[in-house]
Design a protein that fits this description.
Layout lengths: L34 H12 L3 E2 H4 L5 H6 L4 E4 L3 E2 L9 E2 L9 H12 L3 E6 L10 H14 L4 E5 L7 H7 L6 E3 L9 H4 L5 H13 L3 E8 L5 H13 L4 E6 L16 H13 L4 E4 L18
Helix pairs in contact: 4-5, 5-6
């Protein structure tokens, strides 16, 4: 009778997932506190306003609200886009309030802010992309607070250039449209947007005589060369002001952070952007598109 030799089965070691980068100390922020913050909180609630500070989980909310400023988000708080980085809710918007421009303008006056930032969700289902509400919000804010300067952070109009013309015609001092990332990552980060189309939107805004601004998140897997190329593309298309900040994953359902960028590299990018022809670069781990926005109104056109 043959003797069978049974050998132990050696299981292959389970493949270990690469360790996620740990959030470094330079990204720690203070919790929002203080009477000024409480006053802004009260005004936002009383006037039933949406702010990107809250919807976007901005790390600077405590600092900005503590100084009595906020970035207002018009046209509701449900976006028609599904960008993989953004904490704003995605779905079919139901809110379309033609009285919203008045309420935003009154809140800005009550807050007494010297510089207001206004942004919005994408409203692709609207024929004019919400341009009428955009225009009226700027106009009514200027009427109630003529000394207040305004930046509008407008969405991708999907080549509806008539809508763009309306959005930027209200008299605001700065018109911003965020690129968000480098060209190679657009399909992953902004699947319903196009890199070249966003560049064209900035170019058309500049050709209309406006002060132009954009923002890019870093830490999504981009290379230095791709950041340099994005800077060059923006300069060629007439960009004046660029903000660079660290991407932070808002929830587990969103795209993960590939890398935490060191402050020294942010400083390098600022120098490089200025060298390549940008007029103003705000660059740092906690920088967001509306951070220190009041400084950008003085950038020469």
């Amino acid at each position: 009778m043959d003797t069978l030799l049974t050998l132990p089965v050696i299981q292959p070691e389970a493949a270990q997932a690469p360790a996620k980068p740990r959030k470094p100390d330079w990204l720690r922020v203070k919790l929002p506190v203080g009477q000024a913050y409480a006053n802004v909180r009260k005004l936002v609630d009383e006037h039933k306003l949406h702010t990107i500070c809250e919807s976007g989980n901005c790390p600077n909310m405590g600092e900005c609200w503590g100084a009595g400023t906020a970035t207002f988000m018009i046209l509701g708080n449900i976006c028609t886009r599904s960008c993989s980085f953004c904490a704003v809710a995605t779905g079919r918007p139901t809110e379309y309030d033609l009285d919203e421009p008045r309420r935003v303008a009154e809140a800005i006056k009550l807050m007494g802010v010297k510089h207001a930032v206004i942004t919005s969700v994408n409203r692709d289902e609207l024929k004019d992309r919400g341009a009428g509400v955009w225009y009226e919000t700027v106009v009514q804010t200027k009427l109630l607070s003529p000394a207040t300067t305004i930046e509008t952070l407008i969405p991708d109009v999907k080549a509806n250039w008539a809508a763009l013309d309306t959005m930027i015609a209200g008299g605001q001092e700065v018109v911003s449209h965020n690129m968000e990332t480098v060209g190679s990552l657009y399909r992953l980060v902004r699947p319903q947007a196009k890199y070249d189309r966003s560049l064209e939107q900035i170019r058309r805004t500049k050709e209309a005589g406006r002060r132009t601004k954009s923002g890019i998140m870093l830490g999504l897997g981009e290379t230095k060369e791709e950041v340099y190329q994005a800077m060059d593309d923006l300069v060629v298309n007439g960009l004046d002001i660029l903000t660079l900040g660290q991407y932070l994953q808002p929830t587990k359902r969103h795209i993960e952070v590939a890398e935490f960028i060191h402050p020294d590299l942010f400083a390098h990018y600022k120098e490089e952007g200025l060298r390549r022809g940008l007029k103003y670069v705000e660059s740092g781990p906690l920088v967001r598109s509306s951070y220190h926005a009041e400084r950008h109104v003085n950038v020469p056109i």
